[in-house]
Please model this.
Amino acid sequence: MISVSKLLCGLAAAGDGLRYDDPSGPDQITEQRQRKPVVVWNTTKGCNLYCEHCYAGAETEPATGELSTAEGKRLINELAAFGVPVVLFSGGEPLVRDDVTELVGHAADRGIRPVLSTNGTLLTRERARDLRDAGLAYAGVSVDGLPETNDAFRGEEGAFDAAVDGIEACLDAGLKTGLRYTVTERTVDDMPGVIDLLHDVGVDRFCFYHLDYGGRGAAVQDADLTPAARRRVVRRLCDLTREYHADGAEIETLLVGNYADAAFLVEYAREELGATAARRVYEYLRRNGGDPAGERVADIDYRGDVHLTQFWQGYALSNVRDRPFGRIWTDTANPLLSRLRTREDHLSGKCADCCYRDVCRGGSPLRALAVHGDPFAPDPQCYLTDAERQRDVPPADGNGVSEPAD
Amino acid sequence: MADMRERTRVERSSGDGREWETFVRQDPDSSLRHVGSVTAGSEGVAYEQAATLFGDAADIWLCPAEDMCRYAERPLCDRIEDAADA
Model:
């Protein structure tokens, strides 16, 4: 997760130099706590919608074998004991489970920051208030385009309006609420309009996800952006963020799921803000650690299987019903887990000698696996040019004032 | 002496696809090790998937997850340190 607003618009703030970690965000946690993963828990496979790109392959009915309420609480106890800082309650649609508020409250009581990923359509005012009272720290609501695009993508007419109602319910309850938006060929043109519309509603946090090739996402690869289009949309988001901030609207914008964005942000800063800013952006992102699969993000599915990321459902390390999560996650006798954690030694192709491998770490191993049959091959979504991959990094420090690009 | 440890049989529901427990022997002298599971509709696809993830292993064994009998000393349902809260 890369905070565009923080990196491009927060740099001028006095004393902000070494603070990339932001406790107000669900995934931007302190450096010390980041040693333990953020855990995405797909509490159910059931969902009231049927989205084209669902990585979890959710169905309209819950599947058998879901962790029970009691098992879920024991799992949360174990996650807390292990030091997990954040649990993202996801699905399917987590709100189809009647006990989600109870589980959120249990996590909060155990000192875990509970956050929610939802399609928003089941978020009534009463439910939003209950979640707030239980200690929910953040609700991320998925919308993929303006009404026509979103409803087609999500398989239900009226889904957009219902999601906006849900967002308003959260905001009225005083819950920190943000947008989750998957950028594909079908949704990219609506992006500025959705930001405008939801900013008017009161949303000030906007997360943009690149498509990963897991679950039904693997079947819609043809809707993914070309590298050139991806580069344009990331640049547009950088420009938009700076325009909003210049107008006094301090929106938070984030990019998720493609660490070529990290390298691009350094390039963008070098071009637009100068070498000193670019160097600082580079240092923030190098500390941030690149793609988090198998390290800073873990996934537990509805049956308790532990995955390397939420998108990588086709491979499981083990199951929390058999073994505590902490033991599964620290068992580096697993050769794949071990290689992912030392992946800079295993990257191949153009990644092997890329100057940005410290901020990107090869990008998504799942996309590389899906396209090249090798998780350590280059991420097919990388859009850096050959010249950019051969830069001198970190960018040579300047004198702190705006200067032309290299 | 007989093993006196108590274990509970862990039930496992099948997921959306067929799950294959995966074992590898990293080199000919090492023991076979459980390395997780892959989801695939057939043995052939399961093997392909395992081979892409553990390509440097000497041997790869696969077993349908539903054919495994699991007995654990402390499965989640019995890990009750905080039973009062659960």
Remarks:
- The two ends of chain B are 36 Å apart (CA to CA).
- Residues 16-67 of chain B form a domain with the Ubiquitin-like (UB roll) fold (CATH 3.10.20).
- The longest helix of chain B spans residues 43-53.
- The beta strands of chain B are 8-10, 19-25, 32-39, 59-64, 70-72.
